[in-house]
Amino acid sequence: MIQVTLDMFLTSDARICGEVELRVHQCLHSMAGNLESIKRVYAHAQSLQQCKTWLRMNLPHVTCEAVGSNAEAARLARHADDAGAIAGETAGKVYGLRTLATGIEDRADNTTRFLVIGRSLFPPSGNDRTSLLITVNDQPGALYHVLSPFAAHGVSLNRIESRPAHSGKWQYAFFIDVSGHIQDEALQAAVKEIEQSVAQLRVLGSYPVALP
What we know:
Residues 131-208 form the ACT domain. Pathway: Amino-acid biosynthesis; L-phenylalanine biosynthesis; phenylpyruvate from prephenate: step 1/1; Amino-acid biosynthesis; L-phenylalanine biosynthesis; L-phenylalanine from L-arogenate: step 1/1. There is one protein chain. The protein has a five-stranded mixed β-sheet. A four-stranded antiparallel β-sheet has the order 9-10-8-11. The chain folds into two domains: 2-20 and 120-208, Alpha-Beta Plaits; 25-109, D-Maltodextrin-Binding Protein, domain 2, CATH 3.40.190.10. The model has no long low-confidence stretch (mean pLDDT 92). Strand 9 (157-164) and strand 10 (171-179) form a beta hairpin. The longest helix is centred in the C-terminal third of the chain and has 11 residues, at 142-152. It contains seven helices and eleven strands. Helix 6 packs antiparallel against helix 7. The protein starts with a helix and ends with a strand. By secondary structure, the protein is an alpha+beta fold.
């Protein structure tokens, strides 16, 4: 997930109601007729990261510029003969660009995870994931006290990412995904134990795991 999306949960009471995973295939579009004419490449920062090996091997001397979205990248490339844009196939068609290369993502299984946002919690489906937002103070053992209860109660950790919290200086927020539903006894026990040693714990949502 993109970091700006995670940061929005720090100031919002929205919940995660579901997730969708989509395969993402990146293309290089341009008004130019060949790769040799390209001097700079526009793309969202995430797309630049996803295609960094291809860019290094095929366009080692170009300037890469991160923009707000791949659609914005395509719009900018539309008005420059020496610029390229990393975007999906549809964006190239919408902005009338030539497609100079397809499938330039570094990983063949390149996938983007999208969250379904709402206000409600849903009952267990039998194959669920739970997202938690946990804020801790900057002190020795803080992360240990967050993670050890999951292991003690047999809860599998799927993902963890840290961000500076907005609640105070030297506080950090951990976005954690675990297997199971918040109504599961093991997860409830782990959460209850974690709450005793952290500044804040929010259940962002329990929802069915995305279908492959």
